[in-house]
Amino acid sequence: MAGAVAASVPLIAIHRVPLTAEYCILAGLVLWTAVGRHPAAAWAWTAWLAAIVALDDLRGLQAVLGTPHAADVVAFESRLFGGSPVNRLQQAWGRSGLQPWDVVLSVVYLFHSPAPLVCGAVLWRLRRRFFRPFVLTQIGNAVVGLVVYLAFPEAPPWRAAQLGVLPPVRRIASEVVAHGGPLSGVYGGADPLPNAAMPSLHVAYPVIVAWWTVRAFGWRAAWIALYPLCICVAVVYLGEHYVVDVLAGLVLAGAGIAGAELWTRRAATRPPGWG
What we know:
Blueprint: H1 2-13, H2 21-34, H3 39-57, H4 71-81, H5 85-93, H6 100-110, H7 114-126, H8 131-151, H9 157-162, H10 172-177, H11 182-188, H12 201-217, H13 226-237, H14 243-269
Helix pairs in contact: 2-3, 3-8, 6-13, 7-8, 7-12, 8-12, 8-14, 12-13, 12-14
């Protein structure tokens, strides 16, 4: 793992792989594990984040694939909705210059990477029995997402607009980050292979976070359902995903959660010492 972390540093420097919150924490955990501090937490978290970082980096295989899908997806959405929902939302809500809702929705969108880490930390600390099914759900979604990305590389709306398939689409999150000083350079080149829009893990991960938070803490945590609801609108308005990507992300998250719940119930009924 230490070798993989070290080898990724020059790739991050030239923007060939993304610099993510998972990567940064993984690098620290490798060192934490090496010095033998809190081994149970270090090994559990290192295995989880190493899997997520590896799956993110494997998106680089898109470089050897063909032209991403764009025109066919746009035509399909137009038939479903009588036009482009992305363009309609941006025309309805967009104004000259950045608006407060642009910033709020961009922050919600950019929280995609740290949100599972925060949820994992809370579950590990307060509801340890939900940590493993939560991690399994996220890794399962990441694996399926990678397979679909490689089999069906899809240009997101902002990229489809650059290719001339859609009318102009603003990439609002990038506009917001551009006002963030040094952060703008990091984010601007952190997605060199963006053709990974279907299904939307930006939607699937918040659904997973919300589900396992409510499962762990009951209905008093139901307010967190606002997070996936908000992200479903945000990713379309910001020009990052089509509505069909959102729907696919919801289906993927639901399937992953159902699988993890089934695994949890079966594990709970196993006799002591089984397996």
